[in-house]
Every structure is written in structure tokens, then in C-alpha cells.
Amino acid sequence: MNYWLFKSEPGCYSWQDLEAAPGQTTSWDGVRNYQARNFMKAMKKGDLGFFYHSGADPSIVGVVEVVREAWQPDHAALVQDFLRRKPFEPGTVHIFSHLESYAGSHPDVQLWAARHREDNSLQAFAVGDYASLTTAFYMFAFRRQDAVPGCADALLAGLVSEAEARGHRRFCLGLGIDPGIRFFKRKWHARPALPCLETGWSTRAATPGGGWFARLRRLLGGEEAA
Question: Do 126 and 141 touch, CB atoms closer than 8 A?
Fold first, then answer.
């Protein structure tokens, strides 16, 4: 276990703000200092720290615990291993390749990790999105091929508990795109909420004068066709 100092201006985010937050939990963002960001990436679940009020009346006002960790190289390695084993279209690979940016994009996007108790190795992780007012979303999940059994269930239980603490009334598990995911959803008694229609498309060379959207834009803008 490591120990850290979390510094904040009371007028920006205070100890009282943390106490009033859902589940008394918040994301620690807005850190610009390069070394401080590296320290945050090194933090592990269970680490403790002092909450320090800076400014006119500097003082330590409480003790906090790290309950979730930041994106780390072993998260990226797990994603890359998944992409090597699964054939995906370039667009899907592009999305998965930018998960680090997505995971750190907003305080309501949270990264949950399952690590082995003995060697702290990353067994699995999941990303939940809580930005919606009433529905939380199970966005992405990855695990090692030899992961400890139950990792996916433990992560989903944590994501659901977070949603309940925030007052969300629904939790979206996404699409059942393969038998394994459909089995996982049935095990958690998920039910279809909206119909799903899968489709595809192909590209072709632009037509002279543009397509229907270009023609519509010229019509609405009063432009003459070429």
C-alpha cells in the first residue's frame, strides 16, 4: 500500500464537496503537472492519502482511499491482446485503440479493474458510463484468457452498485453480439429493452455534382447546381 497527498483549493473542490458526492466518491481530474499525473497513474485501489486544502488556510482535512485506478500500460496490453485474437473491421479497431482517451474524458466515465490478490496482475477491466440522467451503460470489458473465474461478474457487480448509488434506474448491458455475451446477459437476468437491427454499408466514388446531401444543401442555400 502507498500513501499520497491530494491537494485541492476549497473553492474548486472541497472536503465538504467530497462528503456530499454520491457514495462519497469522485474522479480526481484537472491535474496539469506532468509528474503529478504520473503519480496518479501509479495509484492502486486501496491506497490511502491525505486530503489537503491549499490556499489561504492550508490544512489536512481528511483521509481518502483510492477506490479505482487510472488507465495503465497493462490495460492497453489487454486490449491489444484482444484485438490480436479477434478479427475486427478497421473502424472497430480504431475505437478500441482510443479507449485510454475515452476512459479519461469525463468524470462520469469510470474504469473498473480486477487484479489478482497475490501478484496484482490485471485480470480484467470494464468501462462504465454514468453521464446519462437515468441509465448507466456497460461500455467495454476485457479479460485475460486465463483470468480468475468470476472477474467479469465482480466487475459488473461494481458497475451496477455505482449506478445504484448515483440514482440510475436502468443499467444497459449493450448488444448480445455473440453467444458468450448473450449467455452473460441471461445469467444476469437482463431483458431486451429496444429492438436491434444490424445492417451494413459500402462506399462508392462521389457522383458529379455531389450526392443527395450536397444537392439538398445547394437547394436550401439557394446555390446553383454546377
Answer: yes
